[in-house]
Amino acid sequence: MIGWALDFALAAVALAVVLTAWRLLVGPETTDRVLALDTLYINTVGLVILLGMRLDSTLLFEAALVIAMLGFISTVALARFIARGDVIE
């Protein structure tokens, strides 16, 4: 039963990744694209964690942590660039 639930969750999060990537590509404004990028890395973290649970691999949990840290830093840097025009003062 848990295997079926993990497969369903993997499919649902994979669909969310595809829809978010679509918003990233065709977003009408820059802010839409920044929010789509933020959502995309969150969905990717969820997908990697679910895959780690499904494959019973602890290495994927560490990869999810690295993706989360890089995603947070990139979102902050991109938001500062859009707001101020530069990242580092």
SSE layout:
Elements lengths: L1 H25 L3 H26 L3 H26 L5
Helix pairs in contact: 1-2, 2-3
Give a verbal description of the structure.
This protein is mainly α. It has a single domain (2-84), classed as Helix Hairpins. It is 87% helix and 0% strand. It is built from 3 helices and no strands. It has helices at residues 2-26, 30-55, 59-84. The longest helix is centred in the middle third of the chain and has 26 residues, at 30-55. The protein is flat. The model has no long low-confidence stretch (mean pLDDT 91).
Summarize the structure.
The chain is 87% helix and 0% strand. With 89 residues, it is mainly α.
